[in-house]
Amino acid sequence: MPFLTSFFLRFETRRAGAYMVHPMDLGRWIIWGTYALILLLVPLVFTSSLSQTLLSQMGIAIIVCLSYNMLLGQGGMLSFGHAVYSGMGAFLAMHTLNLVSDGWPLPVSLTPLVGGLCSALVAVVLGWVTTKKAATPFAMITLGVGELVWAMALMFPEFFGGEGGISGNRVAGSKPFGISYGPQIQLYYLIAAYTFVCTALMYAFTRTPLGRMLNAVRDNPERVAFVGYNPQVVRYISFIIAAFFAGISGGLAALNFEIVTSEVVSGYRSGAYLLFTFLGGATFFFGPILGGILMVLAFVLLSEFTKAWLLYLGLIFLFMVMYAPGGVAALLMMNLRLAAFGHLRRLWTCYLGLAGTALVALVGAAAMVEMVYHLQLNVAMGPELRFMGATLNAHGVSSWFGAVYTTVTGVGLFELCRREFVRQWGQANEDIEQEIKRRETA
Amino acid sequence: MEFFAISLLNGVSYGLLLFMLSSGLTLIFSMMGVLNFAHASFYMLGAYFSYTLTGWLGFWAALVLAPVGVGIFGALFERYVLRRVHQYGHVAELLITFGMSYIMLELVQLVWGRSSVDYRVPAALDGPLFTLYGTQFPMYRAFMMAVALSMLAALWLLLTRSRVGMVIQAALTHPHMVEALGHNVPRVFMLVFGGGCALAGLAGVIGGNAFVTEPGMAAAVGGIIFVVVVVGGMGSLGGAFLASLLIGVLQTFAVAVDVSIQSALHSVGMSVTTETFGYALLKLKVSQVAPILPYLLLVLMLIFRPKGLLGTRED
What we know:
The complex is a heterodimer.
Chain A lengths: L1 H15 L9 H20 L3 H27 L7 H19 L9 H20 L4 H21 L1 H4 L5 E2 L16 H24 L1 H11 L1 H7 L3 H27 L1 E2 L6 H14 L6 H19 L3 H15 L3 H14 L7 H30 L6 E4 L2 E4 L3 H45 L1
Antiparallel strand pairs in A: 1-2, 3-4
Helix pairs in contact in A: 1-15, 2-8, 3-8, 3-11, 3-12, 3-13, 4-5, 4-11, 5-11, 8-11, 9-10, 9-11, 12-13, 13-15, 16-17
Chain B lengths: L1 H31 L6 H19 L1 H27 L4 H23 L15 E5 L2 E4 H23 L1 H11 L1 H6 L4 H26 L6 H16 L4 H20 L4 H7 L11 H4 L3 H4 L3 H12 L11
Antiparallel strand pairs in B: 1-2
Helix pairs in contact in B: 1-5, 1-8, 1-9, 1-10, 2-3, 2-4, 2-8, 2-9, 3-8, 5-6, 5-8, 9-10, 9-14
């Protein structure tokens, strides 16, 4: 893997040394080209209508998680009210769509952009109050503003449509080249185009002086103020830009579902953005992309699979914050670093052991959770339930004993594997440090 | 007059309940810098604990035991979960309490079901205390006020007059010095966190039967207590007290006022019809606007006095 090794060495030197610009950067072209290709080709691989719906939602989720990470990862601003901006974008795009249906000369493909611009305007007003403070007070204020907008959504049924929400029809206006956005696949490609452009723009933002100042404001606002910048203004402008992209995602969601209810501005939705952006990984630019994909999978598939999905989600989140605060992206990059130096090979037996024992423990624990849920919610249907192909009796001693036994065995073996893994992981990383030092002196 | 007196009493009793919640939050925040996002969940847990304990041992035992149980749960959470992420900074601490609020909500639904439980005011406290201008004032409301005020007094005595309180206050400003003097500061933090959670649990015990004990009760007060803490001034206990009363009274009055701008304009002789500009806003009654008043207050406060009522910190 010489290519990857050089990539990481450059990464290290760039961090240590001055900031450099590579106009003709081959690695970057490859990464962005692959990203575009994946967006283009994925619906040809997964052709069912369910997967088309899922993929469209993933595109929408990727944009909103990336825009959220502009605040959380790059600005250190923990917002509990980001759904206000994606939601307002959705409502305004939906009103625009209805105007297009009434004969406005605006292509349907531009309505998400209108949603984005409008929600940037909303951020110009609300963001000024919100970004007055940073850190913990900022989090509380976003929560308050989020509650304010959500409560208002039920007070103004003329704009928000009350309980039923407002709906529209995306097959409206002119149809250039016969593209009506009627079939889901046409809409997917619109969403994919938006996703690619927005991702590129948001990445470009991280490279602008403003993006750099935002990082500085996150790390040391006092020093930024001494240099002569106003941290509050830096936060304010970035907040507006993040709201713009969130609004675009909301507008795409309005086109996708053709209905917008007041739920889109709720605190529940804001919490989901926070949760999955963090799970994906807030410290890397591409983390929220993984987070967005996970969000759709969890909301659509996991909720079908088990009633206890919010409990599992909460537990996963808790363990991630405790043991892997960098999210999935950081786990991936750490292993990529090992792979780049050729040390991944000696860890794979450990990984196999960890995965196997964790699976055993999880199956046992999940069986117990499912039995308790069954007792609480479906007890009228009798004590029997199906769990992974087996029939469990929620009143039976043997089922409970089996579940507890499996869990305890799994946890015990996992602990053994984990100790061995920690030893080997430390060893491998030590070797890498030495290798880097050796190369520097050579 | 009758409306005014009864609303004021109701408002003050609701405000005192809010203060029991926000005092724990403020205490934890000012000591550890941790914004406990799950604080309202501990309130909910207190209500459910006391519902179960009332069934077993009666209300008076529950009044003592449920807050203790919630406090122990909170202390364990601090010791084994929160302390681990302390090294990653305040954002990680906030995130972990945020995740905890999800888990506690699911656990409560797992144990007690998804609908509300039948947690009632005890028979000894059920009924009117006195009649004012023909309207009855419930005895339980007075009991709530008494509990809240005695808790406030106990808390103040503990923090300012006892040895433990001195150590807590010292650890607040000079943790390293206190540690050097031989006190176990992490344990003090654990006790404060547990104590704050116990206060929330106590609020749950007396609030759960005054209102309704259901899984949605944490979300119903969650936003408001953050407003109280910001409006009162971050980390100021006195400010939290003032802000709780202010918001309690404000909301209780607003809910009962059935006036809109439309009717006000009408009474001075201006007619407002569906054609008038801004009709959607003008026709809203004050009672309809009541849920957003605390949040409007928050926004106004941030614009005109960012440090809060009694706060000292500008940031």
